[in-house]
Amino acid sequence: MCDHSKNIYLPHLATITEVIDETPDIRTFRLEFQDEQVRDSFSFRSGQFAEYSAFGAGEATFCIASSPTRTGHIECCFRAVGRVTEALRRLEAGDTMGVRGPYGNSFPIESFFGKNLVFVAGGIALPPLRTLIWNCLDQREKFGEVTIVYGARTEADLVYKRELTEWQERSDVRLVKTVDPGGNSPAWDGKVGFVPTILEEAAPASANTIALVCGPPIMIKFTLPVLEKLGFADDAIYTTLENRMKCGLGKCGRCNVGNVYVCKDGPVFTAAQVKSMPQEF
Amino acid sequence: MVGPRRAGTMTLYEPLATGEELRLDELPRRSAKEAFFPVCETILSFEKTEAGVQVHDVDTARFAETVVVGVRPCDAAAAPVLDGVFSWDYHDEFYLERRRKTTVIGLACTTADDACFCSAVGLSPVETKGSDLFLLPLEGGGFGCLVMTDKGKALIDRYPQLFADVDAARPLPPAEPSAGKLDLTRIKEWLDANFEHPLWQETAERCAGCGACAFLCPACHCFDINDEGTEKKGVRRKHWDACGFAKFTDHASGHNPRDVQNKRYRNRIMHKFTYYADKFGATLCTGCGRCIRACPVGIDIKAVLDEIHKG
Fold first, then answer.
1. Residues A116, A97: one domain?
2. How confident is the model at residue B169 (pLDDT cuts 50, 70, 90)?
3. Count of domains forming chain B
4. Are residues A117 and A229 in the same domain?
5. Is residue A275 part of a domain?
């Protein structure tokens, strides 16, 4: 008998119900827990992550990319870059994976009620914000203006392409999509330029607004000063950090940035918190 | 029964078959943490059949009752320190069940070498923290036994024939480590203010990243989790790791926040002398000196701390 309350390292079993190739090397899995009780009771908040098992290869850490407002399943999105993610990529619909979680802190979504939201993401860093985007759009009336600035190296590298179209077509969302210079085809109908540059052009208002930023370190490095210029205070900017993780629950000693454990004290942090950490991430 | 026994050319805390095997004349080469935190242990097993994937749990209730005898103060004192991280919100029963089922019989030290510095980090050769019973070698032979906890008392109650009350007993004088006292608060303040400092390049560029210090340390507890086997049948294991290894923080993307060795050594010192205090109110070092004795490139943690102490 598996006692999940006693063995903190035991994963739940989940069946892959849908496989979506977002880009040539990024894949989404939709997962359903096999145990009925888990299926009914599993809950999480946007920003949290899980440890996903490819049995025989090991566990990998990704955010829970679906919104908690959509029950019955969860989604994860990953790029195959190593041994475990390659093993995950070999799995097909109908196969079994392990899911351990949810772990970490979350976006304080209740404190965003009544405010405008600006989401800024790059490449494969859209999934950790996408859970929050749908979480907000599924209760749209609670928020003010919603702006999404999203870019990738090339058109092919854009994740959640169908949802980008959905967001573009909604009148209550302002989507600004971009690709890096040289990354566009002649038919491209979005912007061309790096995300921080396009964000500055889009110039969303900062009054009563929360900014949510997720991307590779280089994008964050150039995005934070733009937000500062636009008038965003450091405690009105949220990001989610990534680090090499293993246990996901604060014990294995791997993911700390200074005295902060990304898996336990994070992964969601304000820009104020990030600036006070030693710069080792 | 586990205790120090001769193993090849060294003394190690190992299972004892008889009392004659006990060797109490020198500090065991490795710490006693393996009694609670094994080098490698299975945390689940799995198999894939036509019916699907089955995952099998490990029954921690089957861990054996253990007595570890002859545990030096620097080893015994580490266990209460490690309790913090292993019970932080999520309870690691692999560690905690072993802790519950283990009785620690500590042993005072009557000798110390140049690498010992327990007295510098707030402990001593007669420190009883972490021991359920504590043995003091007596003049004329034998041991005085202090009862420190209910668990220790319970052991005496089970084996009364092994113990006798004494009116007067003269313990041998305790060892006197030559290490000077350290002000841990002052060290912590310096560390919190000097993440970037030439000290790290000056002292630790030569660190070989071999992991010996972490493996021998009573307080180091970093671990990794890996699957062994195939997708058809295998086990998942939790096993020791070390922040000194080059790939410890390596991302799959190739990005490594601690990309050079001195940054990795810096993390070791920071974790032990400030981060762990921030989280759990304790220093992650008991001054046993094993890292000093073992370091293949001669890095001396006490010398580094003295340097920091000077400011």
1. no
2. confident
3. 1
4. yes
5. no
Range of the domain at A137: 109-240
B253 and A81 in contact by Cβ < 8 A?
A: yes
Residue A218 pLDDT level (bands cut at 50, 70, 90): confident
DSSP string, B252-273: TTS--SS-SHHHHHHHHHHIII
pLDDT score of A96 more than 80: yes
Range of the domain at B76: 2-310
Residues of A in contact with B252 (CB under 8 A): 60, 81-82, 85
pTM of the predicted protein model: 0.95
Q: What is the mean pLDDT of residues B29-38?
A: 97
**Alpha-carbon span A274 to A115, nearest angstrom:** 22
Residue A2: its chain B contacts at CB < 8 A?
55-57
Six token digits for residue A112: 């965003």
A141 and A95 part of one domain: no
| Nearest CA distance, B29 vs chain A (angstrom) | 24
In chain B, which residues have their Cβ closer than 8 Å to the Cβ of A257? 257
Report the range of poorest mean pLDDT among A6-10, A218-222, B123-127, B133-137. Answer: A218-222
Residue A250: pLDDT band (50, 70, 90) is very high
Residue listed under structure tokens 């071999």 = B210
Structural domain includes residue A63:
yes
In a shared domain, residues A29 and A124? no
CB pairs under 8 A between A and B: 135
Residue A48 lies in a domain: yes
Q: Is the pLDDT of residue B252 over 90?
A: no
* pLDDT tier at A135, thresholds 50, 70, 90: very high
Q: Quick one: angle between helices B78-86 and B93-101, nearest 10?
A: 140
Q: Spell out the alpha helix ranges (H) of B88-145.
A: 93-101
CB contact under 8 A, B44 and A10: yes
Q: What is the ipTM score, two decimals?
A: 0.94
pLDDT higher than threshold 90 for residue B167: no
CATH number at residue A118: 3.40.50.80
Q: Are residues A121 and A225 in the same domain?
A: yes
Same domain as A201, residue A225: yes
Three-state SS at A189? coil
Smallest Cβ–Cβ distance between B57 and the set A2, A217, A258 belongs to A2
The answer to whether residues A51 and A131 belong to one domain is no
**CA distance linking residue B36 with residue B13, whole number of Å:** 12
pLDDT of B151 higher than 70: yes
* Out of A53, A85, A243, closest to residue B257 by CB: A243
Largest CA distance in chain B: 72
- Closest to A9 (Cβ–Cβ): which among B48, B86, B238? B238
What's the whole-number mean pLDDT along residues A65-84?
95
- Looking at beta carbons, which residues of chain A come within 8 Å of B230? 56
A152 to chain B, minimum CA–CA distance in Å?
A: 16
Query: Nearest residue of B to residue A88 by CA position?
Result: B231
* CB-nearest partner of A259 from B236, B248, B275: B275
The residue in chain B having the minimum alpha-carbon distance to the alpha carbon of residue A280 is: B257
* Residue B25 burial (CB count, 10 A): 10
